Amino acid sequence: MRSLPLFHRVAGERVVVLGDGAAAEAKRRLVERAGGQCCSEAEAHHARLAFVALDDAQEAKAAAMRLKGKGLLVNVTDRPELCDFTVPSVLDRDPVLVAVGTGGASAGLAKHVRLRLEALLPPSLGRLAEGLYAAREAIRGRFPDSADRRRALDRALAKDGLLDPLREDSTGRIEEWLDDAADGAASSCVEIVLASDDPDDLTLRQARLLGEADTILHDADVSLAILNRARADAVRKPLPGNFSGHGHTVILRRTTAG
């Protein structure tokens, strides 16, 4: 990844926005939509973020340097080389947000990827998130062990699961899921023989298994690009070696030349 994707809370906070054109107005709308308060450079000492939308390249660079010198993170419209952060194209299913970014390479591309996703994700997705949040204590009570809890949610939220996020009626099934969900999940161990070092060559099943795994055991020369398709908190261990654990384990092996 070339950037670390984060969601920054700005509700009630001041955010500097410089500029008078359409780009600046768009940034002001975005800040206000997130609950922030737009302010001028003179009030930068109260802010942590700044947007610079000035047409003149030298003015924009000078403003960015001044604001960076005051400790602010700065975004400069159409000048990714000056940006501390970039603004993604946002798909809003509050409280679910899907942000599509290209690191400043092409805002148009990010927009059209987001538009495709708009057609896939139902308006009910936000209600499902709120329902799961409201049920969090009941979920913890049903699955006291965090690993069991994660695996139970994985099963429920998977394609065709009882809480499939793409189903309009999933929110109304949370209580049913809690009543019927198994208390634990059997451990599993799956071996994947990789076709190449390119993660795009993973099958859909292999990608899903990597995303669900608690532990990854791998040949020493498995590429980092492949390993990064696993959960960030999954345990990674090279093969060979002794392993004692639980949950879902995936063994990654390289193909041998033949």
In short:
This protein has nine helices and ten strands.
CA(first)-CA(last) distance: 33 Å
- H-E order: EHEEHEEEHHHHHEHEHEE
Kindly report the spatial arrangement of strands forming the biggest sheet.
Answer: 2-1-3-4
Number of helices: 9
Shape: globular
Radius of gyration: 23 Å
Helix content: 25-40%
- Classify the beta-strand content into a percent band: 15-25%
Number of strands: 10
The chain-level mean pLDDT equals 90
The main sheet comes to: 4 strands, parallel
3D structure, described in words:
The two termini are about 35 Å apart. This protein has a four-stranded parallel beta sheet with strand order 2-1-3-4, with helices on both faces. About 35% of the residues lie in helices and about 20% in strands. The chain has about 260 residues and is of the alpha/beta class. The longest helix is centred in the middle third of the chain and has 14 residues, at about 105-120.
What is the topological layout?
Blueprint: E1 14-18, H1 22-33, E2 37-39, E3 47-52, H2 57-69, E4 73-76, E5 89-93, E6 96-100, H3 107-120, H4 125-134, H5 136-142, H6 146-157, H7 174-180, E7 188-194, H8 204-212, E8 215-218, H9 224-227, E9 235-238, E10 248-254
Parallel strand pairs: 1-2, 1-3, 3-4, 7-10, 8-9, 8-10
Antiparallel strand pairs: 5-6
List keywords for this structure.
10 strands, globular, 4-stranded parallel sheet
